[in-house]
Design the sequence.
């Protein structure tokens, strides 16, 4: 279980090659992706617009496979057929509502790319506490929990009060009015009396990668 | 490595009994502490003022032991002599500067109370990168890293770029001027392109408890 | 159950004469209080400092009774002995922690001055959900609930999810770090998916007076 | 007039089944709605875009009735013909200007769905105080008042100064410039020296549901 | 009634010599004041602490007269006995509460130093509208109105709705909780549907000087 | 020069009938306008979108004259031909840049509707100080100055340092980046050491109406 | 190396004639540009939309040359053929990611227009520190460094820790979530323990012009 | 004039050894200072409280010289007598008011420690433009200008409009009310249409060190 120090890219900033599409010109984006998949054999992009997808499709060489994960607003390019090698570790992902699912799916994609098993329970925040209890039962083998929630962002604290594993809160930019862009959720998670760690609003990528690092923990030895 | 669902208090809100002294009347605080130590055998308080300490001292019964951890602004009450039973897992704690040490010490106290080994490297942010490298070498066996930093709060991202274990950033309320109460550090950690999870400004307690939950991971099986 | 339109003072700005001590010079404050009690027979002051109390004591005429409600940081002056006439209606007041009690006590004082019965359950937020359930059982006859909570301010939403009467959330300025002055609690109450109405941070007076207006409702006919 | 504790959904988060359309994919939204109306016989959606409406229309089975409340940006689905059973209680709704009407209409719809009688007086803020007085006369039998206002948000406090029933302020996101998205109105309602409770900016749903809970009060016995 | 362009100091930054004491070392402050009174014959200081006053007293030469205006937290130094020459124009100053009086008194002092007649009506915000009406009657000859108010800051808009002369709103930093340092009052004045101009929070000096400029208008011809 | 108290609409909230188009449904807007012009003979609308204009055009009866002031984003409806009767008083309006002109033109329109003469000098902020001086010379007879400026909003303070008449600053929402929506300009005007009164960001209407009230002053007697 | 005082335009607000297109009507913009190029022989516009470009193209006289710098969102008009005369001095420009390039290109254009040599190294923030080192080697002769970075904005501080010349940080509005519009980057640069000066978010123009002023320094003698 | 890359401490974070006293325990602070002066021969501390000074005095060994710069809230320790070797370059420092002088003096101390000549002109913001002109004449040989200003922070932009050398704005935390802690000054400097670079509020150290780096420029060759 020893950490390694490494100055190379794949350790430095998230493990798979992951490109943040948002904010990049579609053509420049497509070229970066193709260069990455050539160099690394596999490459993921998140927060895609339809324009990014079109630019990628228009330039895709025959020997590169492209998998579009619509629910995650993501795409995976690969040159080979071999699946991601499992590294052990299970990540549980819950959402409070249905609007939180795209962020949760982005987290799932990254955790799976990092070789973890992922179990999910979506839209368990508004239904009665019984539904949350039964959802949690299926997630028991998890090493770590990701809980995504918008508006007041309460669900992560409730989950953290029920399990003894680390819980990562992801504030989601649903809601309207005062601090309705995810800020209320972020604030309430940071102030929570439960033990929670937090990532940026809508940051499915960071939550997934951090959770995978936690989940690897016990399997490395 | 299975998670447990539990609705009892010691799971719900941090594992040891930990009382936040700040914001409580000293007398009420002292009574809460004594009630807790009677019930649980051991009890910790954080963010103590001298008045809290005085109130505790004035009411301390002969059969309760009190340990004052000045650097952590904390106190431990206990009725027995047995040390905290080790649960395995190692937590590394780094600080960027000397002003971040009280927050780091609070994190350390909680992680130790939860049975983890803790290794520290303080004030490694301003010195050259070589000092950080050599500090990291001593911390290699850690399962998880806590990095506390004020002002621009860069150190956690740098550490996360060098190790492959989870890194928890703790923004510290040092600094002055624009967003100088820890907000700049919080914002830069949340926006970091490195993979980081974050806790509230100055939240040594949360960082320590969350890190211990991570560190327990591999040892539970 | 008909509302009355009235342009007189006792309707316009809260029903008993209530003076906000904070921000007033102690001497000026004392004179205002004595003028009010002379005119109205009874008068309340909230958010008192020791200086306000001293100034009042120094000027108190023999025929004015003064009752100091320390836990509520309030004082009641009266010229007669008759208690507040009951108007019917029951208000339940809960707090998440012990730091929220002064705000809750201020709400209680006002609701009682307005002729309501008040039942309280303090510090029920952190203890297990079972304690909250049993606390709620004692409060069942209430017409309306006031729930005061600091930090992430979750308790009001939980209570609103369990009872079918109106629930008023009062954010409290406990907590530290990011939005730790009650703003996180305010934001999470406003964003809550539960049905809640909210008052200003620490506004025990407004919560108590509003709740009394609700509680009067069914009894007026 | 006793409160009931209930962990089921219809108590927990507003009484009728109400779906917040905003932030949901139109197709997913339509499916949720149809599932709900099947299960509960009646179902409401708020904050609809034209796309949500189209998706609903395209999937509407012949045995489900759809009522579009354009002014409220809402829709009601039902499988039967029976109207909402009256539960007693009257809610008065006022707006300061014409831009506040959609929010007021959303509140009205929810209060009516919860079995209350609703009386309205719109655009009474800018006209002289005489128009407000005569408008209030028609609303006298109300158990509770909802007052929606944008820009500086003064009207709720004025109404609260004139009637002795509870007044709920709803800040509306009209206005421009500094805090022109409803924040100035929210702030001035929270700081008001009149006795007011407040809901989120534009939160017609919450205001209507809370008011209905208040209005039920006296009729339950 | 023609404006004059002038690059000299007495036009550039307020007309009398006015020194802002706050933020200056007491000794440096006293020396600045004495230099100014020597040069100009008359000199005002605002926002004084007791330390500033002491430093001034300790250095006061026998030929300089010092007038302490405690309610305005101000002091006037002069070398001669002649009063301020009247320039015509009347300024009305109202406050909503008693806490707003120091700011109003600062405005009054400046307007009087600029040769205007000043009429005041303090604490007319909370009492019934009748008291405001009768207060306004005494102020009718005014050329311009200054209205100081804290908390929700509504009074200036009400006054502007009743008179046809210019109304200047002064937000005051009384209040607590959300935007309780005068920000709510500032925001509601800026968003007001009445015609208002506004100055900085607590800026009695600016309000007084601006009002005097307005009041001079009709008298200059 | 005596002020009049009046509870009627034309005094209460700006003098001509002025409708704020923004935030109103185009059809509802057109109907309000036509009702107003019928009742008052003349009526102005500000902050128009092309949709508002189209709706108005489509419904315009033959006996109503419509004047579109494009530069001011405004429209004037009238039933007669008589021009606005002059009431005396001159308002000077300056802008720092060309982007501030629409706001300035809105102010001009209102001041003219209130019977004032208006003189303008636009885009005098960036050119050398000599251009500002010569522009000011032409504006000398003004009773009051309106100065509109975006970005850092410095021009109003410079003008206030050069003339002895009241200067009203209007922050404009040009600029980008940090506080680039007019907030930096608002803040710098409020903090100005020059004597300035301020209105909301982009609030040409308020600036124009307030300035006209000032300009009327000397002419009323 | 002596500074010159000059009140003329070309010194006052940046040296070449530079027009900020954003916020100007396309037609008005085109006319301003053509007037400037007539008067000065050369003229630059920044932050262009396609509409600005079209308006310019439609009005371009045959004797005016137009150079479109797409990557910089800028355009250069000139009447002659002579290139910008070199004034000596070298400016280095780095970016953390590819999204920061438009801002960097705007800075480059201005610095070149002011007669400086410019060297660039783009997208060196995420790759390993080795790539930054080798990039810096090529930039060694620079007199001053501009470093543009979004999200957490760390790169400027890292560069400032490695070189002994002045480093100017430019926060860029990439990123999402909490303070994701460049505010986190701005805050972290202002709080940096490295020696940095900062310009507004996305302010390539200011960075380029300031850097050219620094670079001229040593060459003026 | 070539830049050097260096990973050692004296390049990384400002050139002299400078310790930020604020936020450090006095005893710990004193020990750090003594260690530094032993190692480096010379050492500076800024933002000292009287307690820091006392702790230093109590521990000062006979062979260490201590120079207290009260106006700069700073102290210099040295073991030898040799003065700072001049490196060429002149820095001009201006302040708008007298409250800005401590920040300006901190900047001066650092620039002098880095071997620059410093010329100052304090309190030139409020006096007429003529005084600023004559002050600037004495500062003409400067390579770079530092301008410190609180409240609206206008002076840096005015200076930048008059000289052709780089101007660094330092916002100062004087002022009260809205954004009165230096934020208004910061915002107006960042939004300035003049060419300015900016440092953190009150950051005299950063301004001085950055200016010295600029001033060294032309002298290095
Ligand atoms: N959805 C996302 N949210 C946050 N960070 C991301 C996301 N997707 C990719 N990243 C990270 O952002 C960094 C910068 O991306 P790029 O601009 O593509 O070089 C990459 O190294 C990724 O690890
Ligand atoms: N317009 C609205 N504003 C606030 N909350 C709403 C609104 N409409 C529905 N809700 C509530 O939001 C909760 C979450 O909705 P949903 O995402 O549809 O499950 C529901 O239980 C509703 O009670
Ligand atoms: N451009 C504007 N900015 C601010 N207030 C305005 C503007 N135009 C009209 N108003 C005022 O806004 C008030 C409310 O307008 P309405 O919503 O049209 O009743 C009117 O009484 C006008 O005096
Ligand atoms: N991209 C830019 N960012 C900031 N300022 C600019 C930019 N482009 C031009 N400017 C400056 O903004 C000032 C005002 O521009 P204008 O509105 O065109 O008169 C000009 O004097 C330019 O120096
Ligand atoms: Mg837990
Ligand atoms: Mg890492
Ligand atoms: Mg409920
Ligand atoms: Mg009332
Ligand atoms: Mg008026
Ligand atoms: Mg003036
Ligand atoms: Mg450097
Ligand atoms: Mg210049």
Sequence:
């Amino acid at each position: 279980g020893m950490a390694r120090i490494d100055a190379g890219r794949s350790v430095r900033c998230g493990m798979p090659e992951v490109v943040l599409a948002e904010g990049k010109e579609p053509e420049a984006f497509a070229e970066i992706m193709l260069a990455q998949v050539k160099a690394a054999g596999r490459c993921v992009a998140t927060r895609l617009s339809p324009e990014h997808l079109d630019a990628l499709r228009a330039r895709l060489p025959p020997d590169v496979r492209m998998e579009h994960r619509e629910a995650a607003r993501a795409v995976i390019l690969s040159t080979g057929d071999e699946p991601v090698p499992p590294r052990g570790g299970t990540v549980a992902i819950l959402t409070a509502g249905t609007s939180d699912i795209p962020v949760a799916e982005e987290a799932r994609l990254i955790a799976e790319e990092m070789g973890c098993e992922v179990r999910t329970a979506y839209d368990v925040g508004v239904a009665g506490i019984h539904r949350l209890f039964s959802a949690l039962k299926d997630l028991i083998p998890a090493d770590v929990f990701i809980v995504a929630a918008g508006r007041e962002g309460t669900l992560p604290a409730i989950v953290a009060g029920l399990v003894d594993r680390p819980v990562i809160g992801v504030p989601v930019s649903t809601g309207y009015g005062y601090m309705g862009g995810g800020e209320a959720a972020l604030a309430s998670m940071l102030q929570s009396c439960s033990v929670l760690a937090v990532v940026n609003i809508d940051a499915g990528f960071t939550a997934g990668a951090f959770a995978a690092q936690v989940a690897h923990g016990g399997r490395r030895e």
